[in-house]
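Let us work through a complete example step by step.
Step 1: write down the sequence.
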Amino acid sequence: MASSSLSASFPLLFILAISYPVLAWGSKPIPFNDNKSFFCFKFRVHIINGFSSNKNPLSLHCWSQDNDLGNHTLYIGGDFNFKFGLASFGKTIFHCDFKWAEKHRFANVFTDGMESSTCCDTNSCYWKTEDDGIYFSNDNKNYIKRLDWLK
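Step 2: predict the structure and record it as tokens.
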């Protein structure tokens, strides 16, 4: 009778044993020998003003469901950035409202499952505003145009 009780609790003990390291990691990446992470939990998002003139600086307001990051004004080369960890439950999404002179654009600058996979290698996502639109990069070197300005 005691052996059947032990064998019945074995699956539960096994699950707890293999789950403990995952739970103990919390929101820290798991390091490998090449200093890259298999799981990415912490990120930094950069919003950079890449306009050709300071005549009209970039105005932006960024927020998530849990955090209002406030209003910011960036001049050429200005970099507003913020860091965060992924939500334990639910999805992490950060939004920004961009305004430049008479143009504007709303964008999700970080969505768990989209930018999280793209930016995992560097743990950073970069958004750069240019005169013709808003560009994205995960290395601050190779940008692709993601959005056009709206009037």
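Step 3: interpret the result. Residues 12-37 have pLDDT under 50 and may be disordered.
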